[in-house]
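Anyone up for a design puzzle?
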């Protein structure tokens, strides 16, 4: 489908999943707003590169997703928001009785509260335009849990719950709200971890991927950012107009266990 004439805002999108989703939206014709908390020349250059490749008005806007006022300002500065992809997130692993309070606060703020702020700011724009799509990048950890990830699991479960509430509030409008729940995704960050993990376990690359990193992912294959982008495109399509308030797992069978 074509998303020409639509403006898509993707939070946390100068790398990884967010960037992959943003690229696919731009390829589908949407004008895309990239975002992160930095304001480097390379951030703006990345937006210019996508704009040139896709003939879209793709730009970069700095906003710190740990701050509610900046989340809302991102939407306002963009000036339009037909498609909102809440992707920004961070992680920290620690037993709950040793979990640093500042890390807990940051994960809840960036992974969950930012979704509240951006959605609240974007909905009036979507209602004014008479159409909207909200796609929250949750996680397999929004549906299940792992030890030592209490803040991340709590935040992603919260995002799934918020997705349902927003969907019910907009159910009689041409606006949908859904969550994509990825398992392990092959991003540059994950790719960079493989050599060190090979050394730690004295394993081959293939064994590390299948038996360590993808231990809980039955397909034993990473999801890709392109697959997540394709799922987001589907949720923006007319075919998905009656899909709202639900989760789509892109996890190689993880949550089927």
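Challenge accepted. My sequence:
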């Amino acid at each position: 489908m074509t998303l020409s004439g639509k403006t898509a805002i993707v939070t946390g999108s100068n790398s990884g999943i967010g960037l992959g989703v943003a690229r696919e939206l731009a390829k589908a014709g949407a004008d895309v707003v990239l975002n992160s908390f930095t304001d480097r020349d390379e951030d703006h250059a990345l937006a210019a590169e996508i704009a040139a490749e896709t003939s879209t008005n793709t730009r970069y806007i700095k906003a710190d997703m740990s701050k509610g006022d900046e989340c809302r300002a991102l939407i306002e500065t963009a000036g339009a928001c037909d498609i909102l992809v809440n992707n920004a997130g961070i992680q920290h692993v620690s037993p709950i009785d040793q979990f640093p309070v500042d890390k807990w606060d940051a994960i809840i703020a960036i992974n969950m509260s930012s979704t509240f702020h951006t959605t609240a700011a974007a909905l009036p724009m979507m209602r004014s335009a008479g159409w909207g799509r909200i796609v929250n990048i949750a996680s397999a950890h929004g549906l299940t849990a792992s030890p030592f990830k209490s803040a991340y699991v709590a935040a992603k479960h919260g995002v799934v719950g918020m997705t349902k509430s927003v969907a019910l509030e907009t159910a009689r409008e041409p606006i949908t709200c859904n969550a994509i729940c990825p398992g392990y995704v092959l991003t540059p960050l994950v790719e960079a971890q493989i050599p060190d993990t090979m050394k730690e376990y004295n394993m081959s690359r293939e064994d590390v991927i299948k038996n360590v990193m993808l231990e809980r992912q039955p397909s034993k294959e990473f999801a890709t950012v392109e697959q997540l982008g394709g799922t987001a495109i589907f949720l923006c399509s007319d075919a998905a107009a009656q899909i709202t308030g639900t989760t789509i797992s892109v996890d190689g069978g993880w949550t089927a266990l």
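A detail worth pointing out: The first strand starts at residue 7 and ends at 10.
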